[in-house]
Each structure stands twice: as structure tokens, then as C-alpha cells.
Amino acid sequence: MEVFIEFLERIDNPQHRDRTEEVLGWVTRKFPNLMPKIAWNQPMFTDHDTFIIGFSVAKHHLAVAPERAGINHFSDDIVKAGYDHTKELVRIKWDSPVDFSLLERMIEFNILDKADCSTFWRK
Hints:
Layout: H1 5-9, H2 14-30, E1 35-39, E2 42-47, E3 50-57, E4 61-65, H3 67-80, E5 84-85, E6 90-93, H4 100-113
Antiparallel strand pairs: 1-2, 2-3, 3-4, 4-6, 5-6
């Protein structure tokens, strides 16, 4: 989590900072083999130098980016969880609960799907 300290300190709203820290900490504990890093000024996790999942903070939500393949694979589950999404990210409103089960499945999907990937992003 040390790698995320400066990023978290820049989040002005204490509730947003706490929620973001909670989610990043959960990923760190649940997936200790993933490498936490800051890239493009956003927290993300990689596996063998390939992108697995990223996060960003907006005024009304925490954005989760599992790449388009993750969005496509879980689009029905994302809607069932009550989240809005685009082709590239899921929006978790600050006052909505985090569906950690869905987040876990997205991360596991990307780890397995990108096991043989030699690039940062999917081709």
C-alpha cells in the first residue's frame, strides 16, 4: 500500500479517500502476487508486467477499469450489482456498497485470461 500513499493523500474528501483505501487494501491482501503501482497518475495492479485492474477517483464515483474484455465478460453482473459502466470502466457511486465478489471475479478473470499475455494491454 505504500505505493498508493501519495495518491490517497491527494483525495480531498475523507469518505472517498477511505473507500478508495479500503478497495486498494482489499486487492492488495486478496491478491498478494499482483504488483501495485501508479501509472498515468492512477493506482493499478499488474501481473508479469501486464495490466490486471486499475482504479480512478471522480466526483461521484470510484471507477474500476478491468479492460474492455472484463467489462464485456461481466456486463450482466455489473448491471445486477447496480453499477453504471462504459466500454472501459465500471462506476461505483460513493454511496453504493462495493461488490467485492464481483471485483474478485473480474481480477481472477484477467489473471487467467492474460496468463500468457506478453503486452501491458490486450491486443
